[in-house]
Amino acid sequence: MNYEMKMPDLATTGSAIKILRWLKQTGQPVKRGEHLLEVETDKAVMEMESSVDGILRETRVGTGAEVAAGDLIAVLEVDAPAAPAARPAAATSPQSVPGTSPAPAAPVPGRPGLFARNRAAASGAAPGQPGTGKAPEALGPARRTAARRLQESKQTIPHFYLQASASAESLVARRDAVSPPKPAWDAFFVQAAGRALQRFDRMNFRFADDTLVPADTSSIGVAVDLEGDLFVVPVDAPTTKNVEQISREIRAGVELLRSGSPDARRIRPGVMTISNLGAAGVESFAAIINPPESAILAVGAIRPVVVPKGDTCAPEWRVSLTLSVDHRVVNGKYAADFLAAIVQEIETPRP
After folding, report:
1. Distance of alpha carbon 305 from alpha carbon 308, whole angstroms
2. Which pTM was predicted?
3. The domain at 2-96 falls in which architecture?
């Protein structure tokens, strides 16, 4: 007999649930309690278990589709006695979004969903904005999560911003001296921030319930944009690695995100995040803190600037840095000294 598997209520407060991938192919046997598919909600990425023993005969929704609790998602062929023993589909291994209660992200990661648009098309509706001819675009779970977390950050974290300029001569020379593949620019700023954090211990704290809590990690995140979705790739223990090692770790993390790895999508807050828009030609900007972290460093374009040198002027590669800081954790002077330390690390030539 056939058993119709429906999407359980995953405590998503009514939001859509995105199908990331099926872990079984049609025609394959499935054991009760065995992981059958991966889904993403506005709160987590998780693996769902099969609630019966049987053979997967149909998948009613494809990868990337969005469904609601109670929607039919699969049909399994089961033995007749097995059906009454079936329990509701369960979800395990929740990879919770740290900023929902205590971590953006982001991200964590996904692709834009089409659930709302598909329903509008099915009903014959053609929603649009007057004069634009364009239909509203429904945000997928990853973008909704990022939007909610960043809004929460701006509303609850008292940001203040410090800006400085650093000579990038040593970075450019170091990178030019290396054979391809060249290190990612982000790797230099991760290394500099990591070294500065060793000298400014208070920057390793977070604010929680009127208490300053030390971070349980030494990782520094790198903000990554993939097809409009915001992700953060963590670099663990950056002070123990050289620029090439950090660069490989960043690029490996990006490739895992491209492949749809559930672990890569899991939000893992670090001590702070690096957000670099230099490749987009942005000279400077102020980034929003990635909760529960207490700071984020915004990196602008590395560009030649004419600067005074003795009695003359000469072009020099320079980069603009903007540090966004949680004022509940540190005051302006402490944060200014920390930013000065990052500048010093960037300007110090290293092998």
Report:
1. 10
2. 0.66
3. Beta Barrel (2.40)
